[in-house]
């Protein structure tokens, strides 16, 4: 599959955009006219730059409001077009996108529109240029790709063909199956865009909210399958108008874009192999990736910090014990049940405690890492001694390191042998007296708002975690969007939260400075909370108003309510079961949660999230802002 991307997707100058597209591995680009117009480079220089970067210039666009007009206006439009054809000859681009008329069309007549396009085709032919006619979803008379195709058929000129854009087709809910009926040689160009489900006028939706395939709600796999079956074998190009991508670093956006296409290509290939007997016979050849099963559990989570005493103390109070220090590095292993926590002081100068890595159990670490790297994840290199386990790891978009570990059904992990014997630490080393904690239930990672879609795509495409319906949680610092990514049986659950900006309010900075947490599952949260209380754990305080509301909502009996209140426990219930949980105070940028799931409760206590966020906010303000502490700590 030939990959391409429109320059309008990215921030920066035309030259910067082209460099980013080449670095991300695209075969070609669509030149958006505006980008050339404002560039100091001549068309010849852009042509040479593209050649030097190994990029083909697949399309020049857009040419607007051409057809369905009066004779006078047609003459104007042909004049305008000819100037662009000359420009395209200088650029060395042979395909021009012609959008269906949205503004100046006055005549609703397919025969006339076709005749006018034919005249444009005759003119284009003299310059060796092909016209790809695209039905914009908001075109005045032509807004349906099959309608555009009828006009192309009527125009009946070898230089007049069609441009298919998944946004215009799927946003209007036109059936993409019709693509299979278009002769392949008449499909001159294909653009792909995804979009979230929003109800708004289609033009605003298109100009501001398009996202890369896999980041929205459109079924692009089926769309692609129809395209492949049509026999089309030209460029498959991303055309994403998105307010955020236009202002974020272009190299990074280009990688996100490439990842989305590689993943779509794979899914299409798998889909066609399942559906069609002769899937390999289509002209378009689709690459695949190493298939990997979804991860089967958390192997560990890691907190990195210069000063680790606070984290050690929290873990001790929760019943973890220190299993020892690494034999060659300033790293400790703490465990409770099969929950393993690494405390890492390597390269941690000036760092507040924060989640820096997590390990996932996978069937085949090498295959999983290879898949992730083919999806443009950056491999992580950690120095290790010759006799130490070589761990596969990649960096997630928020720079959390994701380790791909050999599954350990027996609970024995090879790398743990590199740690010495259990020993006394500053906090002590008492074992969890009742063995209440069983495993890591979920990990909550905050994401910079501008990279949220990228993160969701990353975890889904590289690790086969599936997104659940997202939620919005009100907090004093803003509305926090929360997106759970998980495996099927719930043994791996990542909650991605958008970190509010919060600068104006003196809260923590967005991104990785925003508190993140690890939640541990336990068999008896009340007993564990009592033990932790005796060991001096600082709980996140829960306001009395919350318990008033609990009583009203759930008719909880007085004893239970009193127990919850005295231990700062939170409670939720759904059709399946009950959920009891508590949070520790935050140290640096990390805190812990302990949860007890009773009889099949599968959520995360969503109604309690605003209570937690408000309590953390209040605490960070009264304890002197986390922000200033964070700043000082980072220097
Ligand atoms: O929003 C637009 O005007 C516009 C322009 C060119 C395209 O290819 C497109 O899909 C939309
Ligand atoms: Mg388009």
Walk me through the structure.
The protein folds into two domains: 3-281, TIM Barrel (Alpha-Beta Barrel), CATH 3.20.20; 297-621, 2,3-Dihydroxybiphenyl 1,2-Dioxygenase, domain 1 (Roll). The protein has 18 helices and 25 strands. Strand 6 (160-165), helix 7 and strand 7 (187-192) form a beta-alpha-beta unit. Strands 17, 18, 19, 20, 21, 22, 23, 24 and 25 form a nine-stranded mixed beta sheet that branches. It has an eight-stranded parallel beta barrel with strand order 1-2-3-4-5-6-7-8, surrounded by six helices. The chain has an eight-stranded mixed beta sheet with strand order 10-11-12-9-13-16-15-14, with helices on one face. It has 635 residues and is an alpha/beta fold. 50% of the residues are buried. Helix 15 (544-554) packs antiparallel against helix 16 (558-567). Residues 504-512 and 625-635 have low confidence and may be disordered. The structure holds 3,4-dihydroxybenzoic acid (DHB) and magnesium ion (MG). 3,4-dihydroxybenzoic acid binds at residues 61-62, 97, 99, 134, 136, 165, 191, 206-207, 239.
Concise account of the structure shown:
By secondary structure, the protein is of the alpha/beta class. Helix 4 (71-91) links the parallel strand 3 and strand 4.
Keywords for this entry:
635 residues; alpha/beta; TIM Barrel; 2,3-Dihydroxybiphenyl 1,2-Dioxygenase, domain 1; 2 domains; 9-stranded mixed sheet; 8-stranded parallel beta barrel; 25 strands; 23% strand; elongated; disordered C terminus; binds 3,4-dihydroxybenzoic acid; binds magnesium ion; VOC_core; IolE/XylAMocC-like; DSD; 3-dehydroshikimate dehydratase; 3-dehydroshikimate dehydratase activity
